[in-house]
Amino acid sequence: MSAPATSPTRIHLITGSCAALGGGFMHLLHVPLAWMIGAMVATAALSWSRPVAMPGWARPAGLVFLGLALGITFSGPVLAAVMGALPVMLLGGVLAILSGLVVARLFTRLAGTDGQTAFFCSVPGGVIVMAMLAQEARASVATVTLAQTMRVLVVVLTFPPLLGWLAPHGDYGDFTAARAATWWPGLLAMAAAGLLLAWPLRRLGIANPWMLGPCALGILLAASGHLPSGVPVPLVDAAQVAMGATLGTRLTRSFLLASHRLAVAALISSAVLSLLLTVLAVGIGALAGLPMAAMILGMAPGGMPEMALTAKALELGVPLVLGFHLTRTVLCNLLVGRIHTLAARFGLLG
């Protein structure tokens, strides 16, 4: 007897196949970040006519290999160059958080939410991080999750093509390491060790543990000169498909139509925030003498995995871009709650 049409396995196979085909089509068109964008668009289109879902392990597995691929770009000299840019990364992270505070007032007017919820909807701190902080502050977690997801989608669909086609590309020699050859036993050992590092981070409630654990391992091995293997491009492409498909499964008809006003507010405020942070990135980059395109991507209000993938796909100084987003993630955990308290006290949330 054949499996029912709605069985989870069948849904996973259809969704994954559609996502891979969408990514392959975009790759043939030479679209920047093709595998992720194509998978996301194809999955979202499929979701309007039938159930879609990805296996629960797909995104974590993709993030493990993505984390390794990003971490191994930090050779000793590259790590030193990134640490030299730490003051600029700290400044960029603080300005990004404060920019969210400014955009929150626009979001309040457009969406009709309270100022507290608008604040957590507008700060570019990642979907998981901002949802957790919103819950602690007793803001609307559902509203924050939707708005933050829409922001990531806006950035993923706009920044890769704009940077790939329009942005000036600088000299990334200080932030570029030689590519390592693939040795499968070493790669599998790295993946297993990365998983072991990810588990305690997950238990501690750290956002993106599946990426951060392997990434830390990759940095340690690359910077110390003991890197056993590189990560082949097809695995990074597969990670893009898993991430894109997972994002696409969220874009169901009910998700996009049930909160029309909120979705429109998220789109508009995300565009304004992107423009504001781009202007700040250009100014800071010019003063600091850092590559302009990497600065724009480093300050972009997208999620850390998505922006790091974009940097890798476009070869825009991956360690520098990742350094900016890691710094922002840490600052969001340390500062967003305090800034929210101060803003509420002084009536800055409307």
From TrEMBL:
Tell me if Transmembrane helix is a UniProt keyword of this record.
Answer: yes
Q: Which UniProt keywords apply?
A: Membrane, Transmembrane, Transmembrane helix
Annotated membrane-spanning segments are 29-49, 61-82, 88-107, 139-163, 183-201, 263-296, 316-336
The cross-references to Pfam families, in alphabetical order and at most eight, read: AbrB (PF05145)
UniProt KW Protein biosynthesis keyword: no
Stretches of the chain forming a coiled coil according to its record: none
Under which name does UniProt file this protein? AbrB family transcriptional regulator
Q: Which organism is it from?
A: Belnapia mucosa
